[in-house]
UniProtKB/TrEMBL annotation:
Lineage: superkingdom: Bacteria
A single MF term (Gene Ontology): hydrolase activity
Name of the protein: Amidohydrolase-related domain-containing protein
Domain Amidohydrolase-related: from-to ranges: 47-260
A Pfam family of this chain: Amidohydro_2
InterPro entries noted in UniProt: Amidohydro-rel, Metal_Hydrolase
Bilayer-crossing regions: none
Length: 261
């Protein structure tokens, strides 16, 4: 069984993106043998009112009764938007969203912003994860939107310190994973899940040895990135790095336990 922990539908305003609807997402899942995808509407990265994107995703999934078991939606919430508490409650209680995605680089706030900390605490109290993406797209050929200061793994530490009992997804690890021992210990203690889509997951076996085998699982970051690289990183592990049971955990077991599926 394969579960994609990091997938999107919707549009990216500065480049053409294909295979970005629920219909095409399910078709690609069928092609590549993926059973379930955790999916976010990336329109919410750019809408002033992110809730419109969450409602779009909810309506699209509901348009086909077979999709609701295979596409598990995450809500994009902007904690510096005045109605974010209402949006979060509606997303979790009425729209059936399975988690929250935050995009501070695009919505222009710091992880230590009091509203962001409050949001993560509310998610913790509701038992849902908060997803943070180190990179959406390569910032070097970006359009007018200046997102040049991409995150490294250690840049996520402030929100984990602020809410150490929260539930965090760290996605598309495209930049450095280096950190001091204090930060490493914090991540190892925390309830953290990291996906395999990022370009800096070239040594997945080494990262599992450093952070823990239970903290990783398949993610594609599709349709922005290709669908297979995240899976090939699991397939390429040597026998001494991953037993058959560990491989199954990376394919689906770890994210199932993390999400309580």
């Amino acid at each position: 069984m394969w579960i994609d922990s990091n997938a999107y539908v919707g549009h990216w305003p500065f480049r053409q993106v294909t295979n970005n609807s629920c219909k095409s997402a399910v078709e690609r899942m069928e092609k590549f043998g993926v059973d379930i995808s955790l999916v976010t509407n990336m329109n919410g990265v750019f809408y002033k009112n992110t809730q419109a994107a969450n409602q779009e995703l909810h309506a699209e999934i509901r348009s086909n009764g077979r999709w609701k078991e295979r596409l598990l939606p995450f809500a994009v919430i902007n904690p510096i938007y005045s109605g974010w508490r209402r949006d979060m409650e509606e997303s979790l209680s009425k729209l059936g969203m399975k988690g929250i995605r935050l995009f501070p680089k695009y919505h222009r706030y710091e992880l230590t912003n009091p509203h962001c900390v409050e949001l993560v605490k509310r998610a913790r109290d509701r038992g849902v994860p908060v997803g943070l993406t180190l990179r959406m797209v390569d910032s070097r050929p970006s359009s007018w939107l200046d997102i040049t200061d991409e995150w490294t793994l250690k840049d996520i530490l402030p929100i984990i310190k602020a809410v150490p009992d929260g539930q965090f997804m760290i996605l598309n690890i495209a930049n450095s994973t280096a950190m001091e021992q204090e930060g490493l210990s914090l991540i190892k203690r925390a309830n953290v899940f990291m996906d395999t889509s990022g370009r800096n997951i070239v040594d997945l076996g080494g990262l599992m040895s450093t952070f823990g085998k239970d903290k990783f699982g398949f993610g594609s970051h599709s349709p922005i990135l290709d669908y297979r690289t995240g899976a090939l990183r699991i397939a390429a592990l040597r026998e001494e790095e991953a037993s058959p049971a560990i491989r199954q955990d990376l394919m689906s077991g770890n994210i199932m336990r993390f999400m309580r599926l």
